[in-house]
Amino acid sequence: MKTSIPALLLMVLSTALLSFHPAEAKSKRTMTKAVTGNAAFQPAQECSKCHSDIFRNWKQSLHAAAYDNPVFLTAYWKAWLEEGAEAARSCLPCHAPASAVTGDYAVAQAITHEGVTCISCHESADSRTAPNKRPDFLRGDAKRPIVPPQQTGAPGGAGHDGYFARTRPCADCHDFENRRKVRVATTFSEWNASPAAANGESCQKCHMPFVAGRTANKGGHEEMHGHSFAANLETIHGAVTAEITGVAVGNGVTASITLRNIKAGHYVPTGSTARTLILEVRLINAAGDVLETQKRIYRKSLADKDGNEILSYGDAVLHAASVTADNRLAPGETRVETIVFTTTPSENATVAAELYLLTTPNVAQRIEMKIPLSAAGGN
User: Fold this and answer.
1) Integer Cα distance of 209 and 225 in angstroms
2) For residue 351, which of 244, 249, 252, 250 has the smallest C-alpha distance?
3) CATH code, residues 238-359
4) Quick one: pLDDT at residue 154?
5) CA 82 to each of CA 88, 96, 185, 372, 376: distance values in angstroms, whole numbers, following the listed order
6) Domain residue spans in the chain?
7) Total-model pTM
8) How far apart are CA 330 and CA 266, in angstroms?
């Protein structure tokens, strides 16, 4: 009995937009350029006038919702209650990069609410900065074109030195060490040590494939790199596979499941500690009833200074003091799991396997809060 089960990677990500900030109060938001010193940043809406297809594609991305999505805001509110204004300086440089230059830590400017917006990459000047350090920024009129300016007529004669062909710019936010020197996010480092990196395959190959659309409204190319940075069911299907490679019946049933990380250029799961890869193997009788279920869980486990397990990424950034375990699948890795069912079926049975990615982000909920106003003592 041999069955091959394709992987199902399911990531539930919310992109609903909210517009509240702990320090924002009633400050007025403006669509004008954000100006600090010699840096003048245009909002994405301004870029859309010439690059409408790219703008629409980007608006669908988690980058566009990096600040305003409720998963981040829930973590950010909690961090603000614990850390005050320091939370803004820890979180916003990645979730709203313009703030690192404009100093808009109160998120009063519309461009800060744009999250990882156009200027986050197209005005980034230095891709050689070390992880955890935000890149410097060029002036607002000095864009980085995707191809040499002589082919695009880019303003200011800005040159292209292979900046967008390198993976290094991704490291500034996707490789993070917290203040306790714990490497909370290591996606860039995982890629850097992977077969994909050795073969010259960048993050952009998977996360920015060519899609339909014009690079510019006038004179642009017919095909453009995707700016949604999609990680949906279609793009990640089959990145990791599970195959039943052997079943033995004796005192119970033993199944061999071969896992292969064949497409991801990083560990699976990667990034947030709220993500877990789960292998679920079921023993099913002829009537379709599940007789027994076994699970294997793959994740990076973190703990605070008191040894308490940390489950949310926000808490990992603030409080992780150690990595207690890490059994994730490395890029290119093949791993065989032996599953032993204690149930011995009395009739023909089958073994089924499912592999999925489970994410458990914290989100705000409606709760009751008791606020004492007065109390009368008894006689």
Assistant:
1) 5
2) 244
3) 2.60.40
4) 40
5) 12, 20, 21, 23, 34
6) 34-166+202-225, 238-359
7) 0.78
8) 6
